[in-house]
Design goal:
heterodimer; A: alpha/beta; 11 strands; globular; B: mainly alpha; Histone, subunit A; two-stranded antiparallel sheet; 2 helices; flat
Chain lengths: 455, 92
């Protein structure tokens, strides 16, 4: 049942939010071995469900919503799947959480992710690794892996709130066969989101169908005085898609994936050209990783064993104390990214890496801008592969992990909206197709998504 | 541009991380492989290009310089506190 239909039934009294919530929580516990949830917020969920039954006015009245574990909920453990934040209970709600609750949503818990968003497969978590809903020997994709996995398996109406820095909504959607919207940078307030990289982080919904994405994005978007980078503009109303550009360089993938993407694209019945985007496809990955790691290394400086998170008795000199806590509680991938990020910002290297990456981002943005003058949307596969097996991922070097983001880093670096939809299956595993639009053109993406879904 | 053991130790110390010899041995080739990929940006001409620190042009947003009520609960996530203050390690 779609969220819209479910909310109508809550409003009419045909369904009870409390009963649904109890059933969803039972289901989460039953699916425990998939490792999708870090925390179930049972008492909060039941309280919100009772409230929704008593006063079902909100646009999301009684709708079960899960949150990626990098979003703060007052009083509910929030860890970003990292040991360093184990036990941390925020004293405030993220703006997204406030908006969801104000519209009657029932917050059911926090979903598993790569620690601080550092990963494409969700194998980098300090919790148990989530498993693909269609084949438990395979990954969910990351970093919003728990969100996409649970969305695929749940039998109940549900929307997950994910977050993308370089592809963390699109990638797990592609691997789990669900749909996700990464909105324009700044459309959704980041207040209460635990930062990975401030100039790249975007909060967005993951669902089984496009209407649910549309409904929830409409609730969570909007300017917020608590986030100075949140936009003061609304979505553009024009949703007509007349011409699409298929990105040439992204077709160099497994022919089966290419065929499925082309088949799905042809279903739109919309005219398309093959376009070459050399700067975006060649240089986005390096530019993205340099910026993401540089920003992450400064953001993670705050985890030092003071004020919140892991701590010890403060009886050592401060540098020794901070180093102890960080060395003990950061995993390998976090350390790798902090070191690279610190290095690329250091005197002597800053211009060659960090500043250069920022300049390349300008070229990437300009290339998109130029292309969107001719095309309403761009399209590519979401991921170059289907969900790999854990045994395959274990053999990859760190650089090979980063290369997996080759399709998704471009739109994320430029902050343009993109939607990942299921294009079909290959070897019984889902393949994603990703449409990208110019800034604030989410309605064109919803329009194309709705059309394809109806097919 | 390569990271050698000396640089790695300096960077780790700046980032308040301690690495074992084994960790250094593992990290060095990995970091250099990644930096080699990053160095591909050298080929991109950016002489007259301005950097984009944000994807969309950001404007400075000021708020009124008024104090607001402090969230007293913020001390609730630590044992290291005294009265209404956080307690930290000795700086000197």
């Amino acid at each position: 049942m779609k969220a819209v239909e479910y909310v109508e039934k809550i409003k009419s009294g045909e369904l009870s939010a409390v009963e649904t919530t109890k059933a969803v929580i039972k289901e989460i516990k039953k699916l425990n071995d998939y490792n999708y949830f870090n925390t179930i917020s049972e008492s909060l969920a039941l309280e919100l469900a009772e409230r929704a039954d008593k006063n079902p006015k909100g646009r999301l009245a009684g709708l079960p919503v899960s949150l990626k574990d990098d979003l703060c909920i007052k009083g509910v453990e929030t860890t970003c799947s990292s040991n360093i934040l184990k036990g941390y209970k925020p004293t405030f709600n993220a703006s997204v959480v406030e908006k969801l609750i104000n519209e009657g949503a029932v917050i059911i818990g926090k979903t598993n992710q790569d620690t601080f968003g550092f990963g494409s497969f969700n194998v980098n978590t300090d919790y148990k690794i989530p498993k693909n809903p269609l084949d438990t020997t395979r990954v969910t994709g990351g970093s919003s892996g728990g969100a996409a996995g649970f969305t695929a398996l749940t039998k109940f109406p549900h929307v997950a709130i994910g977050e993308s820095t370089g592809g963390s909504i699109a990638a797990p959607c592609s691997f789990c066969g669900v749909t996700g919207m990464t909105p324009t940078y700044g459309l959704v307030s980041r207040y209460g989101l635990i930062d990975y990289a401030n100039s790249l982080d975007k909060i967005g919904p993951i669902a089984k169908n496009v209407e649910d994405l549309e409904l929830v994005l409409d609730v969570i978007k909007g300017n917020d005085k608590k986030d100075s980078t949140s936009l003061n503009e609304d979505l553009k109303n024009d949703n007509k898609v007349k011409k699409i550009g298929l990105i040439k360089e992204t077709l160099n993938v497994d022919p089966k994936i290419k065929d499925l993407v082309l088949k799905k694209l042809n279903e739109t019945g919309i005219k398309y050209d093959i376009v070459s985007l050399p700067t975006i496809t060649k240089s986005s990955l390096s530019s993205y990783y340099i910026i993401a790691m540089a920003e992450a290394s400064t953001n993670l400086a705050k985890y030092c064993g003071m004020r919140y998170g892991q701590e010890e008795k403060v009886n050592l000199p401060f540098n020794e104390y901070f180093s102890n806590i960080r060395t003990k509680n950061f995993n390998k991938e976090i350390k790798r990214r902090i070191i690279l990020g610190t290095f690329t910002r250091m005197a002597g290297y800053r211009d060659a890496f960090y500043l250069k990456a920022m300049k390349v981002r300008t070229l990437v943005i300009e290339e998109y801008k130029k292309t969107f003058k001719k095309y309403d949307l761009l399209v590519s596969p979401t991921m170059p592969i289907i969900a790999p097996k854990f045994s395959e991922v274990n053999k990859l070097k760190p650089k090979d992990h980063y290369m997996m983001d080759i399709m998704t880093v471009g739109p994320n670096l430029a902050g343009i909206p993109h939607i990942s939809l299921n294009a079909g299956t290959y070897n019984k595993m889902p393949v994603g197709i990703m449409f990208m639009g110019d800034y604030l053109n989410e309605k064109k993406l919803f329009n194309i998504g709705n059309g394809l879904q109806d097919n | 541009m390569k990271i050698d053991r000396n640089i790695l130790q300096g960077v780790a110390s700046n980032a308040r991380l301690r690495l074992s010899k084994k960790e250094e041995d593992e990290l060095l080739p990995q970091l250099n492989e990644i930096l080699e990929i990053f160095s591909e940006l050298d080929k991109v001409k950016t002489d007259k290009v301005e950097p984009s620190f944000q994807p969309l042009k950001a404007k400075n947003v000021f708020r009124e310089d008024k104090t607001e009520k402090c969230n007293e609960d913020m001390l609730s996530n630590t044992k290291n506190k005294e009265d209404r203050y956080f307690r930290g390690p000795k700086a000197i």
